[in-house]
Amino acid sequence: MRLTGVYWKQFVGNYWKRYVQRRMREVNGFDKYVPLIGWKVMRNKTWRYNQYRAWETMGQAYNSEEREFIPVEPIKKWSIFKGDREDKSGMSDITEGALLGIGNPLLDITVNGDQSLLDEFGLKSNNAIIAEEPHMPLFQKIVTEYEPFYLAGGATQNSIRVAQWMLQKRNATSFFGGVGNDMYRKILMEKAEEVGVNVRYETHPKLATGKCCAIITGEDRSLVTDLGAARHFTNDFLHQPENWSLVEKADCLYIGGFIVPVSSKAVVSVLKYAAANNKTVIMNLHATFLCKYFADPDLDLMRYIDVLFGNGDEASEFGKCMGFDFNSVSDICRKTVSLPKENSKKGRVVVFTQGRGPTVLGDGDDVREIPVHAVDKSLIKDTNGCGDAFVGGFLSQLVQKRSIDACLRAGSYAARTVIQYYGCNFPDKPDFE
Question: Do 173 and 28 belong together in one domain?
């Protein structure tokens, strides 16, 4: 009997389903598997994600653009046709705690305000300040009288959150920082953990959790930051056995510049341990006023840094602090790469971003400028989290031992994504390939 129309469709669909399950049983030892990440298909020799199973109607529609495709479960080296192709997503390979961040955690609180709110606290519509005593009632006011939007922030924690989002494996990242014992601490922890970050906050009962209020008026943002307990992270907390075990577990350690003046003893202890155990140390200059710490011969931070981030202004200031006799970012990058290192098993990579200007990359003897592809202005909502997102995307590939070019591509992708949201925010799932 010849099968036609809907019967033929049902026959092919059922056959395909049975074939997939048979192959899954042969390779993995079980019949059914509900994918957590979604199916992956090969189209035009490029891996792409598809949340629909290949035999479902939507899955067939997704693949209809190309006849030659290979459905792949999110399990390494699992494929259906002969000539198995390796799943290079790396998501199933990354271990828990592979990436550790240490920085100043802040709860980002964003509200839509008006001029009267700015006037009440003496704020400007497009400015950033450190909160003083007259500004403290602002935080309670926006929480109780407005509709706040919360994010787990602080530059280093932003980057860790973005890396966690890109990795899509819960607890692949961990984060240390100081917080108070208040309502803001609870919100901060919830917002970090909902992305999948394993947070280990040092709680200071007599201090307030650090927070940053962003008041949006039209296209402007007025930022008011209270660092609070973030300035009080201690070396003693870090070295508690249950906490130090996360340092020992991590392959890559990302330390923000802002934490250096807060707890330089803790920073140096981590750097020395990492160099002695061949772990990758990543640091960020983060601000021009912090560059003096990276040039301080007593701290000698640069000796332990494997990957250094900064922007053009920070690079110039760092060059001055180091006494370099040239001004171009490329020359500063080249000289920075060649500075002495404690761990000779690893080379040094230096990445200096310049906004819309080219990113300067130093990798061994190779120093080059990489053009930045601008985002359509109509899509831009907030540029504040772009730098943090770039670092987070970069780290998500570095911790998987991908090439520097892959790291840069992921960093650019994360920055282009975050720039389309308010704050350092992103969609539920990345579609980076």
Answer: no
- Name the domain boundary from 75, 93, 111: 93
Residue 50 lies in a domain: yes
Closest CA to 100 of 211, 203, 314, 246: 246
Residue (of 210, 262, 294) closest to 102 by Cα position: 262
Mean pLDDT of the chain: 83
Model pTM? 0.77
Residue pair 315/325 in contact by the 8 Å Cβ criterion:
no
| Given the residues 382, 388, 428, 431, the one annotated as active site | 388
Report how many domains make up the chain.
2
CA 205 to chain centroid, in Å, comes to: 29
Domain limits at 379?
99-103+153-205+229-418
Three-class SS string for 224-271? EEECHHHHHCCHHHHCCHHHHHHHHHCCEEEEEHHHCCCCHHHHHHHH
Q: Is residue 245 in a domain?
A: yes
**pLDDT tens digits along 130-183:** 999 999 999 999 999 999 999 999 999 999 999 999 999 999 999 999 999 999
Residue 112 belongs to some domain of the structure: no
388 is catalytic: yes
